[in-house]
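Hi R.,

Here are the chain sequences for the assembly we discussed:
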Amino acid sequence: MNKQESNSNKIKPNESHAGITALQEEVHARFPELAKSEIHGNTLYLEANAASYQTICKDLNGQFAFPLVSMFASDDRARTGCFNIHTVFANRQSGILISVALPIDPSTCAFPSLCDLIPAAALYEREIHDLFGLRPMGHPNPKRLVFHGNWPKNQYPLRKEFPADQRPDFTDEKIEFTRIDGEGVYEIPVGPVHAGIIEPGHFRFSLAGEPILNLEAQLYFVHKGIEKLIEGKTIEHGFYLSERISGDETFTNSLTYCQAVEKIAGIQVPARASYTRVLFAELERVTSHLGDLAGICQDVAYGFASYQFKMLRGWSYRIADELCGMRFLRSVNTPGGIRRDFIHGKGKNLTRLLTELKKELTETEAIVMHNSLFIDRIENTGILKNKIAVDLNATGPGGRASGVDFDVRKAFPYEVYAALSFEVPVQSDGDVSSRMKVKLAECFQSISLMQQVLERIPQGIVKEEIGILKPYHSAYGLTEAPRGENIHYIMTGENNTILRYKVRTPSFCSWPALCHAVSGNIVPDFPLINKSFNLSYAGNDL
Amino acid sequence: MFQVIKKIIQYPRVTQDYPAKPFDTSLTSGKPMIHSEKCTACGTCVTRCPSGAIAENAETNTLEINYNACIFCVLCSEVCPHGAVEITGEFELAQMSYEELGTQLKKKIEKRFGRSLQIREVDSGSCNGCDYEINALNNPFNDIERFGIHFVASPRHADMLLVTGTAARNMELALLKTYEATPNPKLVAAVGACACSGGIFQDSYATQNGIDSVLPVDVYIPGCPPRPQAILYGILKAIDRL
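And here is the predicted structure of the full complex:
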């Protein structure tokens, strides 16, 4: 435990850990019945019992105002004889995670639902039910989430006895969509195969006249069982799976994975590697945002702007090729640092490419954001209210456009972000225009961050050996992906393997927020609103 | 308006002339190759390969890489104790599922698909990397429409299905329905390691090991993800227009 505390990054001052003991005492004073409470790094691990679980979670979320950031189960029957539900809250003021464990007796396989107290818990609990067969008692709508009608009842793939490669026969159960009744109300089903070149998902619109009354998104079409596939595999193998969670967030996902592994190993990434990681993470953000901006313009048939942004995106891929020869920044990271010195000798060329990118983006922004026809189209479209964004924990550009002033890079500084200067752009209107403005501003911030990295990067080694990890140690990795807050949980098993890996990408939280944002809009605006969030299906479905 | 015209004059044409002119591979990371003279068949790469793409050829007793399964992670080149694996820039890896075509069939394909090809893209369980690369075929650098190749909104308008991903369980029915909705004659291209073999996601409860367990595949385009030029090469190869 202390190993991880001493692991605090030398480059950044780690005052975030200072408040954790005080918080532990405060929590203890309020809930004396807690079975366990431990501090590992910036995470406070608590253990509740069935009687106190709801009260503790309610108070952490309500009184302390810590948002629910992740919730998942683990099958620990082989070691402790029970399942565990892990409910994770974040203290974003002081950069502390609070992980509340609740042991579940395998004879009952049930746990009290938090939905009434914390609306964001609804999806997590449905996911837990599908994968582990643990029933959330009191859940208002406990229907299937991960599995569609083709999956047989009573088969729970994340239980340890279920073989990863077992493919049960297809069944034909019917899953009902939310129905809106009333005169003139009709439905439009869309997907899973869409008209554009995008990932699959089924959207069920309920409408009266033109405005959308309700949208229900059925996702998980690209569910591949990543969390199961990784179990029992080596740390090295798991890394490659983490890179393939979501193609355009390859680097951030691998970084989050590495961060968790490095926390468990208790090692310090060399400074040069840390700077390089920031460079890659920001490059990925720019690439992703430029694609979104092109998509928004394309969906309103603003061809010139769309092609301009597509060209800029091509330029950022050029930078990626220049750096590592991989457009999706794969095989760059590695637990303990980065593969090799990617920046050495390229500084001058990179600076030139970044300057060009910045100049062209400035000129393009001036043209696009002064086109009144275009602005008319994106203003007041797809408004995500601040209250909904906060309740559902919508983070990233989608949340920041609705006034959620939160960025993992500021609240939980990792790598060398604390030593670099950047701003977090926030808007308050929550419409497509706000999201576009946030993404544009973030592009400039990211370019500036990359320039700072190139100016300041120290010489030195780029990789530290992680060695063999101790079994049954766990840690959370937390990063700011292009789409928002990204949390991975790793628990190690015997022989340097992974026992449980839980991925919660920002898309998981933002999909329900998107469904709220389209209410009251017309169906032809849906692609535009969807593109302004540009959530990952693969990152949600896993 | 003046600013827009200025930009159009500033960038009159950014489209690359691939495949008429070769693509510069000096920076890119592509196909790994095992040099048999250095390889001792020690098996380090076989056990470490995340997608199980390297195996021993029983006849020749040499190690071979199955490019349909390879995820191009370059790990083999890093772990090889003898430095026998070289990462080349080669990316034109698309292979037809059948051997050399007879001239008659070639003519037929050219007649049916040779002029203008309509493509429907289906993501059947990818990580979205391949989909972004297919999207990039429409960007000003690649501009696939210069070949008369279009992406269409419905399979009913399509000549070719460009399928990415592993045929995930939840997508299997939709994939089959899309295939059935595509009028004959039709071509199917498997794009990326997942579609070609299952890649790193093979042997999972929710996937198939490649889309050829569900659909007949005409052309395999390996890569993780394949570059836009590699996909373009595969499409042109399938319609015999290289």
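Residues 291 and 507 of chain A are 17 Å apart (CA to CA). Chain A touches chain B through 66 residues (CB under 8 Å).

Let me know if anything looks off.

Best,
T.
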